[in-house]
Amino acid sequence: MTPGGTLGAPGVVVVTGVGRYLGAHVAARLVADPRIERVIGIDPPESGGEFADLLGGVERIRIDGGSLGGLLADLDVDAVVHLALVTAPDPQHGGRSAMKDQNVIGTMQLLAACQRAPRLRKLVVRSSTAAYGASFRDPAVFTEETEPREVPRGGFGRDILDIEGYVRGFRRRRPDVTATVLRFAPFIGSTADTTLTRYFSQPVVPTVFGRDPRLQFLHFDDALEVLHRSVVEDHPGTYNVAGPGVLSLSQAIRRAGRVAVPVLEPGLSGAAALARTLRLGRYGLDQVDLFVHGRVVDTSHLEREYGFTPRSTAAAFDDFIRAHHGGAVVTRDQLATAEQRVLDGIRQVRAAVRERT
Questions:
Q1: Tag placement on the chain: N or C end, fewer CB within 10 Å?
Q2: Strands 122-128 and 79-82, bridge-based pairing
Q3: What is the pLDDT at residue 326?
Q4: How far apart (Å, rounded) are the C-alpha atoms in residues 67 and 75?
Q5: Is the Cα dihedral 165, 166, 168, 173 positive or negative?
Q6: Tens digit of pLDDT for each residue in 274-315?
């Protein structure tokens, strides 16, 4: 038994967000644990079947959050793992409004259902180090007790603050439930497919001129391990979950064998345009601020209470590099278009500065 753990694993576990990469892998891992009798995955009706091969032993229920009602009580649920969070707005699926509905309103509805589940004794909530924000006023290292110096500019960071506030309220109403909040650093590794991994997979990587932030990553397999332990053991409280050590952005780019393209900080729209040109995907203010200011968290609380230390940030990043060796190739025309968009963004910034002066 690890520090803080208990011998009894929950019999019935509900996992939200099983139609997504993280939720599907967590549910599959819980199904493989013989101590757990039943794993139920909850997703909205429109969720796809992309990870159906992982969910063979998972009982799936497709339902809107507003319809949860007494479902958890009817299922005699012992534990809930809440992973159904959206990290960046998707313009094709409702943008920022839909993202907030999913993250904040969806969490409120889930916690209301948890409140009415008498057998519930464990709640595990995915959070993020984005809760600390990212600004020039940040401390060198954040602990779990550190308050953000500024409200995060990005929607995901603001959603995380709301979500954690609702969990604190739930703890007061249901002190009999062990509530665990996991503030994850950005995921990376050989299998993870995120905005961050796509960012470093591109031959040309947009950076902010004059900035070289310190970064921490978390190997995806270590995230699964911490989530699993949070379900089968008792670890009440809030934990930073990240790989020890740091990499500067310039070190990461060199390790990945990529080429950095600096843009002026006020012209970050140029970086976003470059990301779209290189098919990086969604690229929000949370990621922009991270690549400007960086963020480092202390993980001693996790290591002490779980008896587990994730692999280092450098080791996690090296595993990602080995799996993505070679990366994508851009054509000369595509690169020229990207460079032109960056230059156009810089010119717009300079023009705006001249107008103000």
A1: C
A2: parallel
A3: 53
A4: 14
A5: positive
A6: 454 444 455 567 777 888 889 999 999 999 999 999 999 999
User: Rounded to the nearest 5 degrees, what angle is found at the Cα of 71, between the Cα atoms of 57 and 95?
Assistant: 85
Count of CA atoms in the C-beta half-sphere (13 A) of 154: 25
Contact 187, 200 (CB under 8 A): no
- Here the tokens at position 241 are 């979950």
- Written as one letter, the residue type at 279 is R
Q: Confirm if 177 and 234 have CB atoms less than 8 A apart.
A: no
